Amino acid sequence: MATKSTIFKANVQIADIDHSYYADHALTLARHPSETDERMMVRLVALALNAHQLQSQLAGDGTLGFGAGLSNPDDPDVFLRDFTGRTRLWVEVGQPEEKPVIRACGKADEVLVYAFSHSAEIWWRGIETKLTRPQNLRVFRIPTEASQALTTLAERSMQLQATVQEGVLTLGNSSHSVDIECSVWK
């Protein structure tokens, strides 16, 4: 019998000062059995960094959420869809292969990749020239130390505060916080 996903609940208070976006999000994350806490928390970071687009692009009339992720490779890790079902934002985390990223660029208005882990630079050197054509693709690097530190925040029930100021996300709970400043690779 297959192992089931583990369900995590997160109440995230987002204060995105850079984009004047302030909202509370009650989120449910299903962590696939092969997914690490680090990857799951990077998905949460990606959502927090892009939550402002719910207001700035769709005036609040859309859906921001988590896709099936590892359970379905044809689904984004994080998405923003308008009321017609059109995918405005497709987010992948980790080190995806070239073909799924290019396919996502054809399905969404904007595609973002958040690479993390110690091997991200090697992955990027191998794939960078293959991803030059898509104009709606941006690639970011989350520092390894920051992505690993996020695991201290992972709990089955999380109360988190996310503050974005001057391009830096501070994600924390009542006892720990992690500062994340992404590098832009593309």
Walk me through this protein's architecture.
The chain has 186 residues and is α/β, with parallel strands linked by helices. The chain has a single domain, classed as Roll (Restriction endonuclease-like alpha-beta roll fold). The chain has 5 helices and 11 strands. Strands 3-4-5-6-7-11 form a 6-stranded mixed sheet. Strands 2-1-8-9-10 form a 5-stranded mixed sheet.
What spatial form do the alpha-carbon principal axes imply? Answer: globular
Q: What would CATH call the homologous superfamily?
A: Restriction endonuclease-like alpha-beta roll domain
Could you tell me the radius of gyration in angstroms? 16 Å
CATH topology: Restriction endonuclease-like alpha-beta roll fold
Overall pLDDT confidence: 94
Strand element count: 11
Give the helix tally. 5
The main β sheet shows up as: 6 strands, mixed
> Any low-confidence stretches, pLDDT <50, length ≥5?
none
CATH architecture: Roll
- Adjacency order of strands in the biggest sheet: 3-4-5-6-7-11
Q: What's the end-to-end separation, in Å?
A: 42 Å
What is the domain total for the residues?
A: 1
Order of helices and strands: EEHHEEEHEHEHEEEE
Q: Structural class of the secondary structure composition?
A: alpha/beta
